[in-house]
């Protein structure tokens, strides 16, 4: 029965056992760790209030509740406005964050990459949910249909369209750790040198860049072509007194894996003040950077900072800006 007047420890324990899975689902649907946590907490309150004697399959019930809470958020006026205005970018997560799970297969890891999360913004909320449930959590189409209130055929069509878009944007497989570190180190060295030609040599001709502008701009900053991306990076990495005042000092840069992609964190003391992630085109010998995503808005860095503090210090890839 419902437990509005008292917390049922057994029901709480059952929910907590699946919290990470629910949070991972919500994160893939929303692209925001903070919003995912809110959705999961709302689901917990509904779970506590429900007459659980009538719930035959708790995992399916909770999955459905979280999915629909996320769909409601995606359809909300605020979310539609942010996405229409081009102000939306996923919140990056450090490797090992439970919200990135499950990550046993290449398809599961790809489904939570920053590139795919950005791409999924072009899908309708239901298409996005069908794709995530199928690719990341291996739900059957009959199960997806029941969860989303659609037909089995519609589920198949939604997943097929999403897969086609992801495949069209794919730049190759996963970079091995050694190659990822090498590419990031070369990028940081080139950016620190201030020489545009060194940066251009690391980029594909059709490279793109996307930045949240530290949250100061109304829309995302978008750049296309290797020359424009290199100019952006050179300007962004150029140390100035104004930047030091804004950040509160002179950060060091550390190699990191963000949503499985090679990248770097700008760290000041024990606080992450910026992050950059790279999409690598492995179809070119040695690998070249096809896309750069930059994050400096404080709202997107809180979970990264908490994860960085838990992880502990490491030797910087670039000690001085």
TrEMBL record:
Keywords in alphabetical order: Sigma factor, Transcription, Transcription regulation
Keyword Transcription regulation: yes
Keyword Magnesium: no
InterPro entries recorded: ECF_Sigma-70_Domain (IPR052704), NTF2-like_dom_sf (IPR032710), RNA_pol_sigma-70_dom (IPR014284), RNA_pol_sigma70_r2 (IPR007627), RNA_pol_sigma70_r4_t2 (IPR013249), RNA_pol_sigma_r2 (IPR013325), RNA_pol_sigma_r3/r4-like (IPR013324), WH-like_DNA-bd_sf (IPR036388)
Family annotation (Gene3D superfamilies): 1.10.1740.10, Winged helix-like DNA-binding domain superfamily/Winged helix DNA-binding domain (1.10.10.10)
UniProt domain RNA polymerase sigma-70 region: residue ranges: 16-78
Ranges where the RNA polymerase sigma factor 70 region 4 type domain occurs: 119-165
A molecular function GO annotation: DNA binding
Any Gene Ontology biological process: DNA-templated transcription initiation
Similarity comment text for this entry: Belongs to the sigma-70 factor family. ECF subfamily.
Quaternary organization: Interacts transiently with the RNA polymerase catalytic core formed by RpoA, RpoB, RpoC and RpoZ (2 alpha, 1 beta, 1 beta' and 1 omega subunit) to form the RNA polymerase holoenzyme that can initiate transcription.
Protein name per UniProt: Sigma-70 family RNA polymerase sigma factor
